[in-house]
Specification:
Blueprint: E1 5-8, E2 13-19, E3 26-33, E4 36-42, H1 44-64, E5 86-98, E6 103-110, E7 133-138, H2 140-155
Parallel strand pairs: 1-7, 4-5
Antiparallel strand pairs: 2-3, 3-4, 5-6, 6-7
Helix pairs in contact: 1-2
């Protein structure tokens, strides 16, 4: 079967979200235009990296071209669009600034089974694509809102133990710094 390229240019909504309770959450990146919705599973670390890297990229874009306007928007805290069907699990994620159209392009590539990835495998060439790909074109203002939501999502999980730093489950946890007593 040939790979599918999910292209959103432009995108109406581009968000990160979760399903499940803290400690058992599944993280998603979701893009929507009209009634077309694509949901991709990502790791929590990927959500954090996307949020931080987007902030850095926006800062660099603003430095290089002060005419680019990045409007301060509120965090989109609405739940993920329903129904949530996992199209694929993201492996490699790329971000690029398209200066001609003044948009940030996010590309999420499906995770492959092979653990041995050469640098050549990381090139996003549609002619040689062997896995599904989500490509989203986002305005700088949408990217700023996306970044804020990514970072707030990552911080909304379980609170860390003040003694050992391990996340505390709702039922508590056995803290290694308290000789096995529950906290």
């Amino acid at each position: 079967m040939s790979p599918i390229v999910y292209e959103f240019n432009p995108v109406e909504r581009f968000v990160a979200g979760t399903v499940g309770s803290p400690g058992e959450r599944t993280f998603f990146i979701q893009a929507r235009t009209g009634s077309r919705i694509v949901s991709v599973v990502v790791d929590k670390s990927q959500v954090i990296a996307l949020g931080e890297r987007t902030k850095i990229m926006l800062r660099e874009i603003k430095k290089s071209d002060p005419t680019i306007s990045i409007k301060a928007t509120d965090i989109d805290d609405a739940p993920l669009e329903q129904p949530i069907f996992e199209e694929f699990r993201a492996g490699v994620i790329a971000m690029a600034w398209d200066s001609e159209n003044s948009v940030i392009v996010y590309e999420l590539r499906e995770m492959t089974n092979s653990q041995d990835a050469d640098d050549e495998d990381l090139v996003f060439d549609e002619n040689e694509l062997s896995v599904d790909l989500l490509r989203v074109h986002v305005s700088p203002s949408q990217a700023a809102a996306f970044s804020k939501r990514c970072l707030s999502l990552a911080n909304a999980g379980r609170t860390p133990c003040p003694f050992c730093g391990i996340p505390i489950d709702p039922s508590g946890h056995l803290c290694p710094r308290s000789n096995g007593y529950r906290r």
